[in-house]
Amino acid sequence: MALIKEDVWSVVDGTEPIPDPTDTNKYNKYVLKKNKALAIVVLSVDPKLLYLLGEPEDPKEVWNKLADQFQKKTWSNKLQLRRRLYALRLKEGGSVQEHVKTMTEIFNELSVIGDQMNEEDRMVHLLASLPESYDMHWKQILKFQKWNLSQKRYCMRKGNLW
Predict the structure, then answer these.
(1) What does the angle CA 121 – CA 76 – CA 91 come to, to the nearest 5 degrees?
(2) 78 and 30 Cβ atoms separated by less than 8 Å
(3) How many Å apart are CA 27 and CA 11, to the nearest integer?
(4) Confidence band for 142, pLDDT divided at 50, 70 and 90
(5) Residues 81, 113 contacting (CB under 8 angstroms)
(6) Structure-derived torsion over alpha carbons of residues 145, 148, 154, 155, reported in degrees to the nearest 10
(7) Higher model confidence: residue 133 or residue 11?
(8) CA distance 113 to 73
(9) Which tens digit of pLDDT belongs to each residue from 40-90?
(10) Which of 5, 34, 49, 149 has the highest CB neighbour count under 10 A?
């Protein structure tokens, strides 16, 4: 998000073309953006992991190294995340907010590796992960299903389903 906020993501993802070095003004602006992107990425890495980057010079290369190391789009990663999702259960008396947060993190990790779930599937997984003591709330859950997406997201963020 910091890369987007600072308007340098296009340098990292390679969508911003490198200007002709003879156009000094445009080229210098590009170099500033590139250096800013590199600084944001490198400073965001845990110091214990900086060895993975070598001598970083290009933010796109650094990003790709990190993605290759931590966001591998393999079947085993997908399987591991799916298993975590399917095994996730809210314990009786546990925090719904923490449960929703954990589940959202898994959904986000799945999205990063190209296995995005739609809102309906997310809701099904969430409701299925609740303990039996929540069964008495089916009327509210059915009402919840009729809510629009912004109402559902607000409720999920607050960790308060009803």
Answers:
(1) 50
(2) no
(3) 12
(4) low
(5) yes
(6) -20
(7) 11
(8) 5
(9) 999 988 888 888 888 889 999 988 888 777 766 678 888 989 999 999 999
(10) 34
